[in-house]
Amino acid sequence: MTQTKHTATPWKAYENEITSTFPIAMCQSDVRGLKEAKANAEFIVRAVNSHADLVKGAQIVVEYFSRGVKKSPELEKAFVYLSNGLAETLKQGVQTT
After folding, report:
1. DSSP H stretches of helix in the chain
2. Fewer CB atoms near the end CB (10 Å): N or C, the chain?
3. pLDDT for 92
């Protein structure tokens, strides 16, 4: 099964529109107004543009801790979150590059 690739990053936000070389999405405003629509567009762009690096970082951390490195309770919790999130992301076939 082939997977359609998403529009190449980096994406950019202009007013309430998300673009790369052409419009990708529009964040429409309601009673909350244009400021919130613009903030939503900027938030989506930040998430999209940082996604590949975050997945790569999670992969490194999960691989490191999978080797049995002694973990504190806080690191164990982080490992569980990263492992679960990474597994779900990769299961969905999300691009990481």
Report:
1. 34-66, 73-91
2. N
3. 60
Sequence-separated (6 or more) residues with CB below 8 Å from residue 7: 20, 21, 24
Residues pairing with 26 in the sheet: 17
CA angle (25, 9, 53) in 5-degree steps: 120
- Could you report the per-residue pLDDT of 48-64, keeping only the tens digit for each? 888 888 888 888 888 88
How crowded is residue 86: how many other Cβ atoms within 10 Å of its Cβ? 19
Among candidate residues 81, 91, 4, 7, the one with its CA nearest the CA of residue 49: 7
Longest dimension (CA), the chain: 52
What is the rounded CA–CA span in Å between residue 66 and residue 82? 12
CA–CA distances in Å: residue 54 to residues 8, 73, 85, 89: 16, 22, 11, 11
**CA dihedral in degrees (25, 3, 58, 48; nearest 10)?**
-10
As given in the structure block, the two tokens for residue 45 are 């762009």
